[in-house]
Prior knowledge:
seven-stranded mixed β-sheet, two-stranded parallel ribbon, 9 strands, glycosyltransferase
Amino acid sequence: MAFAQNMNHRKLVIIPTFNEKENIQEIIQAVMNLDGGFELLVIDDGSPDGTGNLVKALQLSFADRLHLIERQGKLGLGTAYITGFKWALEREYDFIFEMDADFSHNPDDLIRLYNACADRSYDLAIGSRYITGVNVVNWPMGRVLMSYCASIYVKFITGLPIKDATAGFKCYHRSVLEGIKLDEVRFVGYAFQIEMKFTSWKLGFKLVEIPIIFTDRTKGTSKMSRGIFKEAGFGVISMKIKSIFSPYQLNQSGLTE
C-alpha cells in the first residue's frame, strides 16, 4: 500500500519484548523493509533467551533506524510503552506506533494506520479486529469470545465508542501522548490498552478504527494470564468512576506549539 501523506514525518514503532527470539529478527526485517522510513524501538525486559542480543546484532545493519532499550526484569507491557512514549517525545517523532513482536499484527498495516492519521483527520488510529465482524485467525473460540465480550463490557461501562477496546496495534499522533499525563497512567497489563484509548477519547482526541486481520502467534509463547484479565475487569469500573468525579484534563505542560 502506498503512502497517502507526508513521507518526511518521523515514525517510530515501539515493540516490547520478553523472550521473543523466535520472532524478533523477522519482525525487525519486516518493519525495516516498509516504505516510508519507519524506525523501530525494541524495549526488552531482560529476556533470558537472548532477544536483546539479537536486536543488537541487527543494529549493525540498521544503525540509525533500529533502537533498543534494555530493562532489568519483566516490568509489564504498560510501563514498557510509557518508557517508549517518553523516549519518542523527547526525540520529536511525529507518529508513534504500538505493535506486538509475534506477527499477530501484520507490519504492512502500519502504513494503513499511518495514512489514517497523517493528514490529521484523526489523532489515534486503532487496528481493529471487530469493526467489520470478527477478524481473528487461529485463536481458540473461548479466547475470541473473551476478547470480544471484553470490548462490549468496556463500551457498556464507559461509553467508549470503540469496538476493539483491548486492541494493541495503534498509531498515535504525538499530540495525543503529549496531552496525556503519562506518569498517571495506572495499569500495566491488558487494562493499559483500554486506559490509553479511554483517556485519549475523554481528552477530546479523534479516534478511528481501521479493520485488520489478527493472526495468533505461530512461534514463541503467549504472555497472557488471568491476572491481566482481572486487572482489566476492575480497572474499567475505576476508570469510569474517576472520569465522573475527576474529569480528564490535557497535560498542557507536555503540549508543543
